[in-house]
Specification:
- The strands form three sheets. The chain has a five-stranded mixed sheet with strand order 3-2-1-4-9.
- Helix 9 packs parallel to helix 12, helix 10 packs antiparallel against helix 11 and helix 10 packs across helix 12.
- The protein is α/β, with parallel strands linked by helices.
Length: 346
C-alpha cells in the first residue's frame, strides 16, 4: 500500500486491549496483506491498554504510515469497532481480531468472495492454533459439533450461506443502513449485528478461501469464563430482539437449568433426584463418546481432559445464559463484573 494514498479501498479495523504477546503477530499478518489496487489502511482502536500494547502500537505506527491508532475509552470490542469504522476512509471494512493471524491473501479473498456472491458480509471459518497440552485439548473440542452445537463457523470445511460469520467484511454503507455494533454488548456484538443484517434482508457468506488462525484459550478456567460470558450476553441479545439468532443458543441453558432444578427438587422429592442423576449419566456418556471420537481423530494423549473441556463449553455457556436471563432480562440489574472482565489473561 502506498502511504500517501488518501482514499484507500479497504479499511482494516482492529479493536484491542492489553494484547501483549498477540498483537505483534496479528499486526504483522495485517501489514503483509496482498494489497488491493487502491490500497488499505489499518485502524487500531486501543482500549487504553496498560500492559505495553499501547507502546508497541505507537512504535510500529511510526514505521508504517498506514497504521492509525485510535483511543477506545469504552474499552470493549463494540465501542472499539464503532470508533474505527466511523474513522475509516475505505469503502470496504474488514474486521480483524488481535488473537488471530491472517493469510496474506485474506483481504483479497474477502473482496473476491463479496463480489462473486454479492453477500453483505463475508468471512472464513474459524481455524485454530495451539501450543500447550491444554490448548491442544481445547482446540480439539473447539471443532466438535457436539461441543459448539453445530455452529458452521467452527467447521473448517464449510462453505455457503450462514446466519453469522467470524470477524466479517462489509461495505461501509451496510453500517449506515442497519446501524453500528451495539455498545451495550461486551460479548456477542458480532452475532447481534449479523442478526440485524439478516432480518433486514442481508446475506452472509462463509468461504474456505478466507483463511485465518485463532489462538484458543490456554486453561480450563479461562475457557469456562469465556463461554460463561458468551452465554450471559446472549441473553441480552434475545431480550432486545425477542428471538434467538439460532435455537442452538438455548440448548446449554435449558440443560443446565433442568439439571439444576431437578437436583434442587431432589432434596425434597426423590424422583427428581433420580431424574437429575439420569441426566448426569446421559450427559457423561455423551461427553465420553465425543471425547473418544475426538481423541481418535486428533491425539489419544488428550483423552483424560477432553470430557472436562466439553463440560466447560456447555456448563460455562449454560450458567452464563441463566445468569444473563436473571440479571439482564428479569431484574434489569447492572452486569456483574465477572461477565465484563477480560478472560484471556487467566
Amino acid at each position: 500500500m502506498k502511504s500517501s494514498d488518501p482514499n484507500p479501498l479497504v479499511s482494516i479495523v482492529l479493536p484491542c486491549r492489553n494484547e501483549q504477546g498477540y498483537i505483534q503477530a496479528c499486526l504483522q499478518s495485517a501489514l503483509h496483506q496482498d494489497p488491493p489496487e487502491a490500497g488499505f489502511e489499518i485502524l487500531v482502536a486501543d482500549g487504553m491498554s496498560t500492559d505495553g500494547t499501547r507502546e508497541y502500537l505507537q512504535q510500529i505506527a511510526t514505521q508504517y504510515p498506514q497504521i492509525r491508532i485510535l483511543d477506545n475509552p469504552g474499552r470493549i470490542v463494540s465501542t472499539g469497532l464503532n470508533t474505527a469504522i466511523r474513522a475509516a476512509r475505505g469503502e470496504i471494512i474488514v474486521r480483524m481480531d488481535a488473537h488471530t493471524i491472517y493469510a496474506p491473501d485474506y483481504v483479497q479473498q474477502c473482496l473476491a468472495v463479496m463480489s462473486e456472491t454479492e453477500a453483505d458480509n463475508v468471512g472464513g471459518p474459524m481455524q485454530t492454533t495451539a501450543e500447550t497440552f491444554m490448548e491442544r485439548a481445547i482446540r480439539a473440542v473447539f471443532h466438535s459439533a457436539f461441543a459448539v452445537g453445530g455452529a458452521r463457523s467452527h467447521q473448517a470445511g464449510y462453505e455457503g450461506y450462514v446466519d453469522t460469520v467470524i470477524y466479517g467484511c462489509w461495505k461501509k454503507s451496510v453500517f449506515e443502513r442497519i446501524g453500528y455494533f451495539d455498545e451495550e454488548l461486551v460479548r456477542n456484538q458480532d452475532d447481534e449485528h449479523n442478526l440485524r443484517l439478516t432480518r433486514a434482508g442481508g446475506k452472509i457468506y462463509q468461504s474456505t478461501r478466507i483463511r485465518s488462525w485463532y489462538h484458543v484459550r490456554g486453561s480450563l478456567q479461562a475457557l469456562f469464563r469465556q463461554y460463561m460470558q458468551y452465554g450471559y450476553w446472549k441473553a441480552l441479545v434475545i431480550r432486545k430482539h425477542q428471538t434467538p439468532a439460532s435455537f442452538r443458543h438455548l440448548v446449554p441453558g435449558t440443560f443446565v437449568g433442568c439439571f439444576s432444578l431437578l437436583a434442587a427438587l431432589g432434596l425434597f422429592w426423590s424422583p427428581a433426584l433420580w431424574g437429575a442423576a439420569g441426566l448426569a449419566v446421559l450427559y457423561a456418556a455423551a461427553a465420553l463418546a465425543v471425547s473418544l471420537v475426538t481423541a481418535a481423530r486428533v491425539q489419544w494423549a488428550l483423552l483424560p481432559v477432553l470430557p472436562v473441556v466439553v463440560w466447560c463449553f456447555h456448563f460455562g455457556y449454560g450458567y452464563g445464559f441463566l445468569r444473563g436471563i436473571l440479571d439482564l432480562v428479569l431484574l434489569h440489574n447492572a452486569p456483574d463484573t465477572q461477565f465484563v472482565q477480560l478472560t484471556r489473561k487467566h
